User: Which sequence fits this backbone?
């Protein structure tokens, strides 16, 4: 490890600071750490006590001396020379530091073999400090199209580049022109820093560095959505440069002209057919959440329709399987294979509930209500099965009533009427089991949904359903949905409103026959 000496001269005072730097076998002298740059930006604050300046020098044998990169201010060279007279002993000098309005802020860095540079490049940063690079003209011209143009007819021994946004990275990028093992050096950096290097390399036309940065970004993991977005934005900017960015972009995009409909169908099928409870539960939540996020992304209506078709295809498959299982369970010798059939019924009912939830989120569940209301054979077989085998199927009916009550789906009047006629009685029969055995069952929400669904029908249909419910409620009590609020609304519509309307009509007629007084 070599050392770089940074000196600051302030009105007769000398402060020498040792800054560690690394030396590569190729002669690449790495720039000082970001801390050095940062400290040069800050003005020294006046101390309450006189500062102590420690100057320590140690004799070094001539044979052990090695060339080192000097990072000193030009106006400090004289001050450094004054310290050469000190011996091995420590010299402590106490003095009050005067206030200085403007501090010279300049760093000098030498690349390659010491004393062999043939041009100075001065980087002037926007932060108010500058860096002088002692470099080799042929190295810059061979690696950078920017320097090749600037230095082709440049006869002066120095070149100034002003308004550098990122001087620290600019110095590192110039240093990479001296580095043969660029990949190994980049491996020690993080993605954010490589993106900064890539930006400077693009400005300099440093093609080999840009290619190495792209190779790094193609292989390195991107942590988080924010970092991924930064990488993609930076890469897309390079597409017009003729640099091969496709390997990096392939991580986030595929060479296809249409959505992966088959892939979505395959994912849903894998989830539906899984027998591992925990994996099924977690992946159902993940897929449901991701499909919800997709709805917030602008897309063509055709892609949404295709997605709905895939889901409905799975719904029809599950309904067919459920009907077949009900038929098996209704047979006389069902007890011989009861356990696997009941397990499969539970699985298919859970699948249908999940698919219905997806459709309700996408506001596309009206067709599901039509399909479910027309499955009268399934409803007829429902009563022949033990309640422990069938009660989860009633969760599907309950979810439909909740959706209608919340306005998540708006099926036609005939569909709502048929749904209540076909599935309300099976739901009432399973209600006690739903309350005590289904953890996600919310009694108040379901009862409100059933009541609101009933109240959307014509008054005659409301009366028929309410009287049927009242008969069941008076027999089993809490084992039946409590629809008292809906019953009260129906009562007022049936008995109170006609009377109020009649009284209003009579009052209006009385007002019309009162003789008008002549003025």
Assistant:
């Amino acid at each position: 490890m070599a050392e770089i000496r940074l000196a600051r001269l302030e009105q007769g005072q000398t402060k020498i600071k040792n800054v560690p730097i690394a030396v590569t076998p190729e002669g690449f002298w790495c720039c000082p750490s970001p801390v050095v740059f940062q400290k040069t930006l800050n003005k020294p604050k006046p101390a309450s006590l006189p500062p102590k300046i420690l100057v320590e020098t140690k004799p070094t044998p001539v044979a052990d001396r090695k060339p080192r990169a000097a990072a000193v201010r030009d106006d400090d060279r004289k001050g450094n020379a004054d310290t050469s007279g000190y011996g091995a002993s420590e010299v402590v000098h106490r003095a009050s530091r005067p206030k200085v309005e403007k501090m010279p802020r300049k760093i000098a860095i030498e690349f390659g073999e010491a004393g062999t540079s043939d041009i100075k490049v001065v980087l002037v940063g926007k932060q108010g400090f500058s860096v002088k690079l002692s470099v080799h003209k042929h190295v810059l011209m061979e690696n950078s199209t920017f320097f090749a143009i600037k230095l082709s007819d440049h006869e002066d021994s120095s070149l100034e580049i002003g308004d550098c946004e990122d001087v620290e990275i600019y110095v590192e990028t110039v240093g990479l022109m001296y580095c043969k093992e660029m990949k190994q050096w980049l491996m020690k950096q993080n993605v954010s820093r490589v993106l900064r290097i890539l930006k400077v390399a693009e400005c300099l036309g440093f093609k080999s560095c840009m290619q190495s940065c792209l190779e790094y970004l193609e292989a390195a993991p991107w942590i988080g959505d924010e970092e991924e977005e930064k990488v993609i934005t930076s890469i897309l900017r390079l597409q017009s440069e003729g640099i091969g960015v496709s390997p990096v972009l392939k991580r986030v995009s595929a060479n296809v002209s249409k959505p992966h409909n088959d892939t979505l169908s395959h994912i849903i099928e894998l989830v539906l057919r899984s027998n591992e409870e925990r994996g099924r539960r977690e992946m159902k939540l993940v897929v449901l959440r991701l499909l919800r996020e997709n709805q917030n992304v602008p897309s063509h209506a055709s892609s949404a329709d295709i997605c709905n078709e895939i889901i409905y295809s799975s719904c029809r498959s599950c309904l067919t399987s459920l009907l077949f299982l009900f038929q098996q369970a209704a047979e006389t010798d069902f007890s011989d294979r009861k356990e696997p059939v009941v397990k499969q019924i539970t699985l298919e009912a859970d699948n249908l509930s999940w698919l219905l939830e997806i459709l309700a989120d996408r506001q596309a569940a009206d067709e599901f209500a039509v399909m479910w209301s027309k499955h009268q054979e399934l409803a007829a077989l429902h009563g022949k099965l033990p309640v422990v085998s069938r009660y989860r199927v009633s969760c599907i009916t309950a979810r439909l009533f909740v959706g209608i009550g919340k306005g998540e789906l708006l099926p036609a009047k005939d569909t709502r009427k048929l749904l209540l006629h076909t599935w309300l009685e099976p739901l009432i029969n399973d209600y006690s089991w739903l309350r005590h055995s289904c953890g996600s069952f919310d009694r108040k929400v379901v009862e409100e949904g059933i009541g609101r669904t009933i109240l959307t029908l014509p008054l005659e249909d409301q009366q028929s359903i309410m009287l049927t419910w009242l008969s069941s409620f008076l027999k089993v009590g809490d084992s039946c949905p409590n629809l008292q609020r809906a019953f009260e609304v129906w009562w007022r519509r049936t008995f109170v409103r006609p009377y109020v309307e009649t009284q209003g009509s009579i009052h209006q007629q009385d007002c019309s026959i009162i003789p008008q007084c002549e003025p």
In short: Residues 181-255 form one domain.
